[in-house]
Amino acid sequence: MKRIIETNPEFASEVVLSIPYAYWLHKNNMLEKVSTCKGMKPFYYFCDNVDERFEFRSLDNAQALKDIPNKWLHNSEAGGGRNGVIDYTQWTCPPYREHFKNDLFDNLKPYVIVNNIFNAPWLENGTLDIQNLYDIFSYLSEKGYNIIYKRPTNKEFALDQNEAQTLSLNSKLSANVEGIGEITDYELCNYFKNVTNINDLHHELDLDYSTLNLKLFAETEGFVSINGAGSQLCACFGKPLVLYVTRSKELRPGYLDYDDCYFKMLSNAPIHVILDSYKTWNGNPSNRKYKELIDTVKKVFKGK
Fold this sequence. Notes:
The protein is an alpha/beta fold and about 300 residues long. It has helices spanning about 10-25, 60-65, 95-100, 130-140, 160-170, 185-190, 200-205, 210-220, 230-235, 260-265, 290-300, and strands spanning about 5, 30-35, 50-55, 110-115, 145-150, 175, 180-185, 195, 220-225, 240-245, 270-275. The protein has two domains: about 5-95, no CATH class; about 105-300, 3-Layer(aba) Sandwich (Rossmann fold), CATH 3.40.50. The chain is built from eleven helices and eleven strands. The protein starts with a strand and ends with a helix.
């Protein structure tokens, strides 16, 4: 009997829980239709009947994941209750890298994607800040990489409650830089000739936002990402991922260590983790593990 699934959870849950279940159904000739959020059709490229019905995402997993076997992103009974381990019996991540390979961005190669977030309730202590970004951009530039900086404006896709709240706050990711003054992360991109803001690419190219992401991700050398912010999608392409974790469930013991944690199961990508809980900073950003983060970036991306 073929299945119809309706799903509109937060983006991370859709990437890790909903899409792999839908693909598993497809591989077993059991998928009839997917109803999902606006803009998500490219992620279900394997299904001929996709209805982008939902205008908003929901944090109510009981409803948003009612048709999905895994109801919780961070552990499951089948995984022995271990952090980051879910039930994989009806679960297969689509081969996004193979399906979306292309030559559209050959002029930018080699490039690394820096993936960031600035959403409630993670404002201030759940983001790659201006200092982080400057150090990462500078090092990767010196080593001959181009950089694609991804931080959505929250106007590109169906929003969840946290993203909608962020829009209402009109907050900016910014800092005072000596000799320059107040500068935002988007403005910082303009100070580097080889850093491209993905939002600018979106305006320039005749591609919807989801397809642009999938095609860019398929051809990158790898990723530097804050946790959250679609870091789970970064883990779907089999490329190195430097993952900087400052808050949320990923800080739990063992979460990113188990060989069968979902981050590793998505594509067996090499994942290099820096755990740096904001609770240890004592309100002072200078207590962050800046050096460990940039040292890890240097270890993973050595130049071409």
